[in-house]
Design brief:
Layout lengths: L6 E3 L4 H11 L3 E4 L5 H6 L7 E4 L9 E3 L3 E5 L4 H6 L1 H6 L1 H6 L6 H6 L2 H7 L5 H8 L3 E6 L2 E6 H4 E3 L2 E2 L6 E8 L5 E8 L9 E10 L2 E10 L6 E2 L1 H7 L6 H14 L10 H21 L3
Parallel strand pairs: 1-3, 2-3
Antiparallel strand pairs: 4-5, 5-10, 6-7, 6-10, 8-9, 11-12, 12-13, 13-14
Helix pairs in contact: 10-11, 11-12
The protein binds flavin-adenine dinucleotide (FAD).
C-alpha cells in the first residue's frame, strides 16, 4: 500500500517546530528517523496532513556526560548509542540492549526520541528508560519539562507528552560503583520485535541485591515494572529459595495478554525464565 499524500516541512529551529505544531494541530506530525512513522503511513494507520521533519533542528542529537547524568539527545540514532564508548562505560545497559533493536539499517536511522515518543510496549528503549530511572525531557513554547520515565508511559501508545511538546532528550542518572545491569529478550528471529524482554538494574553489595529495578517489555500495554518480584529479592542473597520466591511473586503480578504466536501463560512462563537468567548474570557479572 502507498501512503496518503502529505505536505512536508523541515524547520531549522525549535521555535519554528513549536509554531508549526500550533498552526497544524492534529494534522501535523513530527518525523524523526521515520522508521515507524513511514510504515504506519504506508499501512494507512495514520494520515497526517503535514510531516514536520526535526532532522534540521540543531541541538537535538548527541551523547554527553553531565555532572549527575548521561544526557542523550532525542535525535541520537540507535546505532550511535550502540557504538558510543561513553555509553559503554557509563550506561552499559543501553550498550547491551541496542543490538536487539531491529536490524542495523533501521538502527542507523531510528532515534531514541522516536522510540520513546511512539511508546511501543514491545520496544527496548521504553523498558530501559524505566529501568534506569531516566528523565524524559520535553520542550514546548512554554519551556522545558522533565517527567520520570515511570510516569511517562500512560497506556498503549499513549504518553504524558502534550500535543504542543516534543521530546528533546533523555537524562540517565549516573550509576554507582556497585550498580550492575543486564538485558535480554526472546525473539523469534534476531531483529524481530521481542516476545518478552527484561531490563534489570541492581546494586550488588556483598552478594546482597539492593534497589532492584526489573522492567519487562512485551508483558503489557506499557513497560511493566515487577514490583513484587523486586520486593521478594530486596536485601537478599540470590539462592534457589529467593529465586523461587521471586518467581512466585512475579507469577502473581504479570498478566500478559496473548500475541499472535504466544498465549498469556506462555509469556508469563518466559518472563520467569528471563528473570532467572538475568539474576544469574547480575550476580556473576557475566554478559
Ligand atoms: C522492520 C522494523 C523492525 C523494527 N524492530 C524494532 C525492534 O525490534 N525494537 C524497537 O524498539 N523498535 C523497532 N523498530 C522501530 C524503530 O526502532 C524506530 O526507529 C523507532 O521506534 C522510532 O524511531 P524513529 O526515529 O524512526 O521515529 P519516527 O518513525 O520518525 O516517529 C515515530 C513516532 O514518534 C513521533 N516522534 C518522533 N520523534 C519525536 C520527538 N523527538 N518528539 C516527539 N515525538 C516524536 C513521531 O511523530 C511518530 O509518531 C522497527 C522498525 C522497523 C521498520
Amino acid at each position: 500500500m502507498k501512503s496518503p499524500s502529505f505536505d512536508y516541512i523541515k524547520p531549522a529551529s525549535l521555535n519554528d517546530v513549536f509554531a508549526l505544531l500550533a498552526q497544524h494541530g492534529d494534522g501535523g506530525r513530527i518525523i524523526a528517523g521515520g522508521q515507524t512513522l513511514l510504515a504506519t503511513l504506508n499501512m494507512r494507520l495514520s494520515e497526517p496532513q503535514i510531516l514536520i521533519d526535526i532532522n534540521g533542528v540543531p541541538g537535538l542529537s548527541g551523547i554527553s556526560l553531565q555532572e549527575n547524568c548521561v544526557r542523550i539527545g532525542a535525535m541520537t540514532r540507535h546505532s550511535e548509542i550502540e557504538e558510543s564508548s561513553l555509553i559503554a562505560q557509563h550506561m552499559p545497559l543501553l550498550a547491551m540492549t541496542a543490538p536487539h533493536i531491529a536490524h542495523k539499517a533501521i538502527r542507523n536511522k531510528g532515534t531514541l526520541g522516536g522510540s520513546i515518543a511512539f511508546a511501543d510496549p514491545a520496544a527496548e528503549w521504553p523498558c530501559c528508560v524505566v529501568a534506569l530511572d531516566a528523565l524524559i525531557v520535553m520542550a514546548s513554547k512554554r519551556g522545558l519539562r522533565r517527567v520520570k520515565a515511570i510516569d511517562f508511559f500512560l497506556e498503549l501508545y499513549t504518553t504524558a507528552m502534550d500535543a504542543d511538546e516534543i521530546i528533546v532528550a533523555c537524562e540517565f542518572p549516573l550509576m554507582t560503583a556497585t550498580t550492575r545491569c543486564a538485558f535480554d529478550e526472546l525473539a523469534r528471529r534476531q531483529g524481530d520485535y521481542a516476545i518478552v524482554g527484561l531490563a534489570a538494574v541492581v546494586r550488588v553489595e556483598q552478594q546482597t541485591l539492593n534497589d532492584l529495578r526489573l522492567v519487562f517489555l512485551g508483558m503489557g500495554n506499557i513497560p511493566v515494572r515487577a514490583y513484587a518480584a523486586e520486593a521478594a529479592l530486596e536485601g537478599k542473597v540470590l539462592t534457589a529459595q529467593t529465586l523461587a520466591a521471586a518467581k512466585m511473586a512475579l507469577a502473581g503480578e504479570l498478566h500478559p495478554v496473548a500475541d499472535l504466536y504466544n498465549s498469556g501463560p506462555m509469556k508469563r512462563h518466559l518472563g520467569a525464565v528471563m528473570l532467572g537468567r538475568l539474576l544469574e548474570k547480575l550476580i556473576t557479572g557475566a554478559h
